[in-house]
Amino acid sequence: MTRVVVVTGTDTGVGKTIATAALAAAASAAGDRVLVVKPVQTGIGSPDPDTPDVDTVRALAGVETVQLAALDEPLAPDTAARRQGVRIPTVREHVARIRELLPSYDVVIVEGAGGLLVRLDAEGGTLLDIARDLTFALIRADGSPVEVVVVCRAGLGTLNHTELTTTALRAVQVEPAGLVIGAWPVEPGVAETCNRTDLPRVTGVPVLAVIPDGAGSLAPEDFRAAAPAWFG
Fold first, then answer.
1. Which residues are known binding-site members for ATP?
2. Nearest Cα to Cα of residue 144 among 180, 171, 104, 107
3. pTM across the whole model
4. Per-residue pLDDT tens over the stretch 161-177
5. Which residues are paired to 110 by β-bridges?
6. What local confidence, expressed as pLDDT, does residue 157 receive?
7. Is 91 a catalytic site residue?
8. Is pLDDT at 144 greater than 90 in this prediction?
9. Which residues contact 70 (CB under 8 A, 6 or more apart)?
10. pLDDT-derived band at 48, boundaries 50, 70, 90
11. Which of the residues 11, 38, 77, 120 is marked catalytic?
12. Strand 146-152's sheet: what is its strand order?
């Protein structure tokens, strides 16, 4: 039975890709065959193109990755596709492709784009829809679990953003599995310290991991060695 993990963020820039790499590295260290799937990547065709998230994950975690669609401008996928004049896969097509990949791996991690409700296709489909559709499809098929992990900030505003995200998941009967604080400062202030305690209290969701700020700059071998200790 394949373990499926869907990684979303409370916003863009919260450390979602590094958290995805950490999850992948920890699973790989435990002996699992791991695949990371990025349904849509944007920002690859600008004058200063973004590094594709799958490249970052593959370099840090040393696992297999696949990117299902790519768009030039660093915008929400539906906007970027419309401006570029191209068709991108629907959420339904993404779910079908992810399900085809499952039998070859022990763990499949799906990384979203931006926050939970960023539109991933021209029909209004979002990562919330992917999480919901995968959850119910796999329950009906073989009972495989889908874990949704929410990556959040450490500082001010995180309680509101994280509670909104977990509430949206529960509204479609998807219970979030846990939170990951995406970038924990070297010298946390009172806000960060209180938030680390308050996040599970206000959301009812445990903090699974706290990732040090700058972890993405570690050498790959150091990242892989350190990642398991960030969980638990």
1. 13-18, 53, 111-114, 212-214
2. 107
3. 0.96
4. 999 999 999 999 999 99
5. 6, 37
6. 96
7. no
8. no
9. 40, 41, 42, 44, 52
10. confident
11. 38
12. 64-67, 34-38, 107-115, 3-9, 146-152, 178-184, 207-212
